[in-house]
Design goal:
The structure is a homodimer. The relative contact order of chain A is 0.12. By secondary structure, chain A is of the alpha/beta class. Chain A folds into 3 domains: about 45 residues, Orthogonal Bundle (434 Repressor (Amino-terminal Domain)), CATH 1.10.260.40; about 130 residues, Response regulator (Rossmann fold); about 130 residues, Response regulator (Rossmann fold, 3-Layer(aba) Sandwich), CATH 3.40.50.2300. Chain A has 11 helices and 12 strands. The longest helix of chain A is centred in the last third of the chain and has 17 residues. In chain A, strands 2-1-3-4-5-11 form a 6-stranded parallel sheet. The first copy, chain A, has a 4-stranded parallel sheet with strand order 7-6-8-9, with helices on both faces. In chain A, strands 10-12 form a two-stranded antiparallel ribbon. Strand 2 of chain A pairs antiparallel with strand 2 of chain B. Chain A binds a DNA duplex through helix 2 and helix 4.
Chain lengths: ~350, ~350
DNA sequence: CTGAAAGCGCTTACAG
DNA sequence: CTGAAAGCGCTTACAG
């Protein structure tokens, strides 16, 4: 490992001068600059990030905390975040936390962040009160995506609007018997997304004078498999809904699977719509409400960069930013008028 | 930020003693031990990882390098790797590299790894010769997953066997007119997986005396959308294949989408099989060949831990490990005898 | 068992 | 413009 001292020796200057010409805050004589650069190149010098961090107090790494990688949303946004951060000169420390936390195991510890990262991007992981307290004590620049933590800047979509767009589409097509997938009972107090979406669903139905059948509002862990299992009995019931709104495309794909297994034709016998615009949505012809995940990732990074520029804790005076991105309805092949309503295409 | 000196002062011992009792390589008097522990707890002391790294020479972070996060395989394996590594006391620095590299942009630089990580897990990213050279110069403990780099331990599945299992299943059902999806022309020299699978496909067909129609062996970028676009004309052709083998489940899902759009019934009119056992495979009833991704992740971590224990570069004497995990056929609802062959279920 | 001291490889005022 | 020196917060022989 070649060190700054090696470069200094070869260039016949002090280490201070090497440090200066490599970072260039101050003026350096062009000729000594040349010598230093040449020496560094010849020795293939790479500064030790750990020594730099210790001396400067900044690590240039940010923690990205996610509840899982296996869901489309998280995989997509982590990709964007990592690239945006790398372009800005930061590295990302990835932490995948089990969610919800197991009773005993403490997922979070001060060691994970303290003096290790310059900032945190918190992706829709719900926190226990102790964890929130710990995060507060760390006083690190932080931004949340998806679910807000009181004091940190947050970027999210308008979940109520997204659900409303989906329901409206269904209502316009003539549906009134609509099932909903994606309530999350136990954690609803902490996670705003599931709660906001189902609330908007109910409101929209009520506003349209359509019935809200509670036995059709289903609790699911947001996986395709669970969605399929939950919707099957409903689809087989009498009466059965003429349409299903899933709070995520992955659950909607589960519904497609269940319909297929039951021999139900989509959209002729039952309409299906999701929320996300998942990678597979287009190829499967799934109607959905699109959210722009890369935009959310970029916004989160830019907010964090701002917060880190202001230093620890940010500016306590200014109001906490809250960015709400719009969503757009994308009608595709899985939604159509209900069998008894429109008598669509022959 | 409380430092080791604060703890030392409060406990009325030297910093050396604090360091010792916190790591406990040497004996420490039980009573002073108590005092130190109490002091550390009272001050909520967390050692600075950057100072520790500088002094000890180990960072306890490993780089995980992936070509993308949006594919099921990578999202799954990164999850497993992160958790296994965290349990072992390591953090992961995630790097998502564009693959293939853009001509000019250098994706890799020594700064990304040098003195920053203790090891590297390299996930199926193909390397240019310069990159391979750089990686070699770094001399960091490294393990590859998916595609081998000459000198590093590698864990992968038996790609030939996986493809063979899929073809055999189709042949046993009576298919002889089989299309294949997942050749990758430009990079075939670097990526063993696509090449191995299509080779095994061809060999199996030849061995069975079935025709290999080159116009049915399709070049696709391994996304569902591209697979759908590529297979559509083939499915509409005359003659058309009675079965399609996709080199990944994501492509198989694309084929399902294409069939749906064409109004072709699966498996009655065309059989579809993939490789992976993707999260959605079961719910969609997709026949596939299962690979155990968590096992690959755990194996990679364990190999890396071994290599890091041996120190830089590992033991040059011992042969480079190569772990090949087995795959298993999972027949589900998308495969059946061909229309003209078996006259399956009424 | 414990402390003093050197050293890890940088950065950053402070002089000059 | 440039160098000497202190300091970042730890670990690790070396003495005792």
């Amino acid at each position: 490992m070649t060190t700054i001292a090696d470069v200094a020796k070869l260039a016949r200057v002090s280490v201070a001068t090497v440090s200066r010409t490599l970072h260039g805050s101050t003026r350096v004589d062009p000729r000594t600059r040349e010598r230093v650069l040449a020496a560094a190149a010849e020795l293939q010098y790479v500064a030790s990030p750990t020594a730099t961090s210790l001396a400067s107090g900044r690590t240039h790494v940010v923690a990205v905390v996610a509840p899982m990688m296996s869901r489309w949303f998280f995989a997509s946004i982590v990709t964007t975040i990592e690239q945006a951060l790398r372009e800005a000169g930061y590295h990302v420390l990835l932490m995948v936390l089990e969610d919800p936390p197991r009773p005993q195991a403490s997922r979070l510890s001060p060691e994970m962040f303290a003096k290790r990262v310059d900032g945190i991007i918190w992706l829709n992981v719900l926190t226990t009160p102790e964890e929130a307290e710990l995060l507060g004590r760390l006083a690190l620049p932080m931004v949340c995506v998806g679910t807000a933590i009181d004091t940190a800047p947050t970027v999210l979509i308008d979940d109520r609007a997204a659900a409303r767009q989906a329901v409206s589409h269904l209502l316009h097509l003539g549906h009134r018997e609509i099932a909903y997938l994606g309530t999350v009972a136990e954690t609803s107090a902490h996670m705003s997304t599931p709660a906001a979406r189902v609330e908007a669903f109910r409101d929209a139905l009520v506003a349209a004078g359509a019935p809200v059948r509670e036995e059709w509002v289903l609790d699911v862990d947001w996986t395709a498999a669970a969605a399929a299992a939950a919707i099957e009995p409903v689809l087989r019931g009498i009466p059965a809904p003429t349409a299903v709104l899933a709070a995520s495309d992955e659950m909607a794909i589960g519904v497609l699977g269940a319909a297929r297994r039951l021999g139900l034709r989509v959209p002729e016998e039952v309409s299906v719509i999701g929320i996300d615009d998942h990678t597979f949505a287009e190829v499967l012809g799934l109607s959905t409400v699109r959210q722009d995940v890369p935009a959310q990732g970029r916004a989160a990074v830019s907010l964090l960069l701002d917060a880190m520029a202001l230093g620890q804790g940010g500016d306590p005076g200014s109001p906490v930013a809250r960015l709400e991105l719009a969503t757009t309805l994308i009608p595709r092949g899985t939604t159509a008028p209900p069998p008894t309503g429109g008598d669509g295409a022959g």
